[in-house]
């Protein structure tokens, strides 16, 4: 006797094609949690964590105030985001990171320093933008040192594509700024090419290329190491103009 149920006579017997998966710009990397990072998850997530199933957010309700708002995609271990939030207590910050130890590290920093103007997602940034961030609600979106996917065959995985620029533009207020930084020159060139072609943006660089390192962007350990190795860093700032 077969374990396969009989199909109705008019049922299709050809297997349907599986739905195509969106190309991910990140890899879920495993990492051992330190005691401090686990403490951050345990104590900080109930207070600062946000999830996709909350749907479209009322950011004034989330932060219990009206304030300028910055969202950072891929905050790494969270030190620069924590520094920015502490330097600007009158502003609100949302961080997105899929690396769990990094999430724990930032949350531990928030708890330890009693910094309250940051909220955290630990999932796909594109889905967060689509499902949770209201249109025209952000003053800045930060993308610092994203995975360069330096092999040519993997370039399609880079997050900075025209569709990304269009999505970000919808979430920025008019006058809001997309600020990107990378230490891979080829990726910087691609960022510049994509953003120069994206409608509704103005390059803030006077010469139409890259801006000097802005003072408000903290220098990370990662960047200092790159400087010691002779790596350049390229910053780009594009403003939503309509």
Describe what you observe in this structure.
With 242 residues, this protein is of the alpha/beta class. Helices cover 33% and strands 17% of the residues. The chain has eight helices and seven strands, in the order ααβαβαβαβαβαβαβ. Strands 3-2-1-4-5-7-6 form a seven-stranded mixed β-sheet, sandwiched between helices. Helix 4 links the parallel strand 2 and strand 3. Helix 1 packs across helix 4 (100-113). The longest helix has 14 residues, at 35-48.
What composes the largest sheet?
7 strands, mixed
Overall SS class: alpha/beta
Element string (H = helix, E = strand): HHEHEHEHEHEHEHE
- What is the rounded Rg? 20 Å
Number of helices: 8
Segments where pLDDT lies below 50 for 5+ residues? 1-21
- The spatial strand order of the largest sheet comes to 3-2-1-4-5-7-6
What does the overall shape look like? globular
Fraction in beta strands: 15-25%
- pLDDT averaged over residues: 88
Number of strands: 7
Distance between the termini: 67 Å
Helical percentage: 25-40%
Index terms:
242 residues, alpha/beta, 7-stranded mixed sheet, 8 helices, 7 strands, 17% strand, globular, disordered N terminus
In short:
Helices cover 33% and strands 17% of the residues. It has 242 residues and is an alpha/beta fold.
Topology (SSEs and partners):
Layout: H1 35-48, H2 59-63, E1 69-73, H3 79-87, E2 92-96, H4 100-113, E3 118-121, H5 125-131, E4 138-144, H6 162-171, E5 172-182, H7 185-197, E6 201-203, H8 221-228, E7 234-240
């Amino acid at each position: 006797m077969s374990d396969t149920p009989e199909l109705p006579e008019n049922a299709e017997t050809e297997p349907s094609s599986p739905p195509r998966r969106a190309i991910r710009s990140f890899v879920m990397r495993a990492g051992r949690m330190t005691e401090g990072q686990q403490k951050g998850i345990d104590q900080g997530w109930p207070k600062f964590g946000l999830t996709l199933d909350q749907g479209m957010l009322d950011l004034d309700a989330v932060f219990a105030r009206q304030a300028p708002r910055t969202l950072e995609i891929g905050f790494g271990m969270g030190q620069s985001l924590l520094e920015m939030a502490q330097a600007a207590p009158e502003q609100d910050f949302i961080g997105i990171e899929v690396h769990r130890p990094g999430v724990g590290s930032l949350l531990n920093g928030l708890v330890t320093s009693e910094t309250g103007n940051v909220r955290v997602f630990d999932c796909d940034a594109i889905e967060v933008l689509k499902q949770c961030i209201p249109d025209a609600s952000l003053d800045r979106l930060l993308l610092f040192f994203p995975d360069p996917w330096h092999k040519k065959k993997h370039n399609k995985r880079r997050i900075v594509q025209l569709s990304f620029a269009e999505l970000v533009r919808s979430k920025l207020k008019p006058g809001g700024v997309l600020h990107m930084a990378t230490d891979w020159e080829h990726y910087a060139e691609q960022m510049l090419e994509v953003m120069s072609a994206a409608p509704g943006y103005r390059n803030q660089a006077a010469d139409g290329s890259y801006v000097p390192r802005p003072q408000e962007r903290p220098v990370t350990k990662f960047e200092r190491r790159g400087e010691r190795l002779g790596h350049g860093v390229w910053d780009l700032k594009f403003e939503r103009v309509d």
